[in-house]
Amino acid sequence: MPIEVVLLFAWMLVIAFLAFIACTFEDLESDIGSQSNPNSQVQLAAQVGQINRFFNKAISGEPLSNAMYCVTAGTIAWLLLRQFEPLVPGEEWKAAVLAIPIGVLAATMINMIFSTTSHCGRTAAQKRFEQPIYLDVLYGHLIPIGAHAFMTTFCITCIAYIQSNIGTLSGNPALDHPFALPLLGFIWGITVGAIGSSTGDVHYGAEREFQDRPFGEGKRVVYHGKITRYAECGVRTQKDIAGFCLKFGAPCTGMTFGLIILFENWRSMVGMQLGGFLPALPAFTATGDMAAIFGIVLGLLIVAALMVGNIVFVKWVRKKYGPFVGV
Amino acid sequence: MEPVMMILIVGCVVIGGLLASLGAHLLPVGGAPAAMGTATGIATGTVQIMLGAVMTGLFTAASVATFTDSLLLVSLSGAVGATVMMCVVMFMANIVYAFGCGIVPISGRVDVDPITKEPQAPYRTPQTDGHGVPNVVYVSGAIGGFLAGFAGALMYYALLNYAHFSAGLAAIVALSIFVANAILAAYNIRGTIEGFHDPKFKRLPKALISSFAVSLLCGIVVVLAATILGGAL
Amino acid sequence: MTVTPAVIEEEEPTKKGLSFKFPPEETEMGLIAGIIGAVIVIFTGLPAVIKGVGLLLVLLWGMDSVRKTSKYGLGTGVPSIGVLATGYGVVGALMGLAVAEYGRVGQLYPAVLVGVIVMGAIGLVSGIFANGEKFIAMKIPRLERAMMELGMAGTLAILLECSILTGSLSFAAVVDNVMTTGLIALLFIFNCFAMLHPYNACLGPDERRERTRMCAVEISGLICVLLGLAMIGLGTSPYGILDGVSLVVFGAIVWVVFFRMFIKACMDECYATVGTGLIKTIE
Prior knowledge:
The complex is a heterotrimer of chains A (327), B (233) and C (283). Chain B has 233 residues and is mainly alpha-helical. In chain B, α1 runs antiparallel to α7 and α3 crosses α5. Chain B is elongated. Classes of the chains: A mainly alpha (327), B mainly alpha (233), C mainly alpha (283). The interface between B and C is large, with 42 and 45 residues.
């Protein structure tokens, strides 16, 4: 197999690995700030009289907020790359090593600014429910939120950088993705947020926020707002939650995004390989069409496998757990 | 620009808008209650999960569009990409529900699963509207993802190859039109929906009419812009 | 599920130094922002700082429209309407840029306003469909007008940002500098946030319009900083690097002033601001 093709597959695996890390940290970041859907309970808690020491980070939904951080990081990195790359001809990676962390740092600052405004704004709007602003909660959570967001944004920006240069990196510049770095950051920011909010939030919202309620049932409407306010020792803040969700929810979320990136890139590249498109790249010919067809067929096979897997899994869970027996 | 092209662009945008609206109604969206295991479906909003799915599809569609110029292949690539995303998300959500919270995936709107004929009511927690992603919802979500991804990639292809936009512009304009339709559909759904077996699915025609009008107008705007510029891109 | 606040016209006396009463009423705000924004869009030769002021006003207008729509509860959360506004804005900006060459006088582009008007019409149509009894029937008072305003504000904002980044509104320049480079993603997402974040962040029964508007101005300041950096990077301004630097400085000053003002307002107006403390126990 030619070295270009091997490099292409190697970079694809690097991207999938980065995706795993990115989404794991994304879920933890949203849990620390109680962003997205479980935030409705933190918001509701004060209204039903449950004054709490949770951080109320309501920066819209996760997809949009993550898209914002990744686009900021991507834009700043792209601007710096434009300045630095001509300085190191032939060794463009040196520019990337400097540009990407600076861009991500700027995005982290923006994340912390938005976190502060949303926590203060939402708490101030709950004046009549007697929910105070605890300054130690405000300051104490900003650094963990920023640190986790740094990891997420860093990985996503790296993915975007690799994908916008994947052809150059593996020796076939025609394979570079047609979208520019900021736009790729936007795409993967939206996706990582959508996955983080749809998979990872369940562990935080359905289990950790209601840990003193019976295990193994959907949380009833009467529980809503009555969140677990006390920790194993003392009053619960969201720093306790990161440790809990890291044990199950966050890795599952990371795996979801990692699998999606892996499947998506893998089926495209195996399709190219099977269609005879690599490494000569005869675009807009029958070979190109064949590569696309193989990619689609492989995708459909993956979908079918997942569908069968879900049917088997649901059947197994129903058998093992049995009907509802509580009151 | 010849009239055939113009009609083609408007047609693609309108079809894309209608499919986006239909896809939004098929996606099982539980919203915030789903994150607490109080409603069936994916634990996020309609617009959010749709954007995620379509963006994944659009990424693949854009790379496929660099080496093939067949409308069907590009659109199908986008559709399959979005379906893969939806399927993995729903499967992993089930795993988190089952092992993280001990919850069985159950539909809240029907007493018997229309596809596998499994009884649902005895497994449901009282005072909830179902939880998890049961099989019928899973199938509905996969179809919804397919249609949404197809819509996004179709609009991207039409703007890229018929209106001759650059790749970045085509992506962002396709996304904008798509988002407008998805949000109108989300307003029609109002919170949660389980899929094609949900009673709320009967509200679909209202959203389709609105989508048709808005995408027609957007399509005309795009055609006017493309005509005036006349390949000056 | 966001908690829908009760609709209350709150008129609390505020402490001195924290009130931000420009212009006091929503319709006046719309008129002022719309007219000033439109004038600044047409004159593309202006320095970036003035365009930044226009952008600030237009985004404040958009945020006001989001606020008056969302306080009735949308069913899908506040963010969706801000994204809708920006989505319309991109399509409208495309239309405006396409016709920009017609009737052009030097650096004046009066025709771009066609895009704003077209988008206002599309917004109106979608508002009628969304609110109509026979269609989606959202039953939100004045939704038609709010959606029209959102379409217009979104378009003006995108056009102003394009004009800041390229120094002109010629389509070729915008495509080269904004679309192909992917900067359009930056414009898209930050327009969304400037419109949706203030109300989303201040949501609650004790929300106060003036406080929410401080947050909007603060985010506009951030946008100005980022746009200024992008301008310096692109090097497209007719006034050289000084134009971008001045925009960055302007944005930073606006951000610092309004961020401090907003946080101070929040801490003064909330139930209590305490260093630390235990929570109230429930029997």
